[in-house]
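Chain particulars:
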Amino acid sequence: MLKKATLIMLSCLLAASAQARMNLDELREAARARDMVALAQLSEQSVGDPLEMYPRYYYLTTQINQTSDGDAGQFLSRYAPSPLAERFLADWLKELARRQDWAQYEVYYSRLENRNAEQICLKQQAMLKRNDFSALANHRQLWFSAKPQASACNPYFEALFSQGLLKEEDIWWRIRQALSNNQLDLARQLAARVGSPEYLVPRPPVMVKKGKKSTPVLTANLNTVNTAPERWVDEIDTSSRAGRELWLFAVEKIARNNPAQAARLLSDSSLPAAELQFGWQQLGQIAARRNLPEASQWIARGHLQDLSSDDRAWTIRAALRSGDWKTVEQRINALPADEQQDSAWRYWKARALLAQNKAAAANALWTELSQEIDFYGLLAREELGSILSAPVPGYKASKDDLAAINQVPGVRRALLLNDQGWRIEANREWNAAMRGLSDQQLLAAAELASRNQMYDRSIFAAMRPKTLNDFSLRFPLPYRASVESAAKANGLDPAWVFGLIRQESRFIADIRSSAGATGLMQLMPATAQWVAKKMNLSDFKLSDMSDPEINPQLGSYYLAYWTERFGGNPVLATAGYNAGPGNAGKWRDARELEAAIYIETIPFNETRDYVKAVLTNATHYAHYFPGSTTQLLKRLPAIPGKNSAQEVSE
């Protein structure tokens, strides 16, 4: 193996000329094989190459337990700021913590741009090692996370308890959150801090002899309640704090299968008021995400304390679903100030005001919101009687603009990485390179990415300018001939299909999701095979899913199939395309429902945002296609009730 001195010597060759283009596949294989000789050779050969930091990164991190401070510092000095330098810095900080080199940890920690909980806790450890308690309380909020924290945080938490900055009630709060999130191992670990009560840290069952046989006698505890809450809920002694927390956990488990039974248990309980309010809060949240008609009333019996942003949103959605406009307004007004500025809550607050005959106040909110071009911005515009006009020709990058942006190091690296299929790394480089650019530079970058078929990065850059716009880059039309032909062949609005593709794949033809969905319209293999059979494509093979000529044919057929099954309703078909048609049908109400309320109360966060984005995209794309509606509300027909003829199965 080459000595580290070799790498230091190589790093000094700043004026060396670039060699032949680096082979990234060769680099990846050398890193996987931990072939230090090959990594050193690639590092030497890459001097002067725009991607020279990549082999050096793998050379250092593959043997990081032997890397010297000099090598680490030199890498960071030469290549920061960049995504790879930030990644190396995180690797190096973890190694310094392993070495217990706290002095150096603090030096390098100061260079981090974004800090995670583990890095913060390790910094606190470093300060504790030198008896510095001055910043001990600064990150106390890490304790109040519903998620388990890294083990590196334990010494920090111990110090908070020893200094009286965390107390026993804070332990019980976190135990409750752990149980609410079904993190039973975390709850058991936390219970050790409050005496390990048997309800939360179960002992082995008692063996009772009956004749010649020994029978285990079970008791109510965290394990048994988790398995059979209905069996044990009435046997829990609620005179202790552990008993009350276990009982609330049992009721929440019951609520997931039988909300009505959980409501009866809470109604009949004699628990202290604050704990009962928590129980109603949890039941209300479960019911809201299932769109149960009782959800808003149950939430009203609880309290709005200790709710996450997502939970607060569901208190509003429950009131929306029940048509209680006064409560919608009250719950929006109860949000933190920054959350009230979300476009959804500004729109729905205006609707609530209008329902209470406060038209002037509603119009004032809509007037401000109508300047935005997202889902609720377009709805606000149409509430005021205005229709989205065709975009005016935007700023076009000049040759000089394109030449200049092509010389930005991060942009250059992104293009080269993408060219060899390192898409994740290319996206990181691209996104980082966009920071701090002017509107003119951003649009030049968007044009450059488009010319290199990096349509996702082109859209990313085109959406960032504040004063300049080029809607042809925000809403591009790659593969127009094949997409438009496939849409029309299946009786679909091409604007809708383009809107869906923009959300699904950002026009990256060979993209593949972690679940296996592939191509422009992100079809799963089984779905693609089913559609191909329906279309009598006897020569179809799975590799065709990445073909921009074939994929739109398959996806359009599938979308049209479910559109027909949903009675031509594009909202249900769009939701079904993302989450499955069974879910889209299940989320309907017993009665006919306004489409925007249906969309806002979709339980899956991804699908809710997806439907909004696809239909908004379609409205913008409509300007390219004669006969396609440029009114979002026309894309939102009412959602029929569950008792209609539109029942579907997967």
Observations:
- Strands lie at 206-210, 213-217.
- Residues 1-19 have pLDDT under 50 and may be disordered.
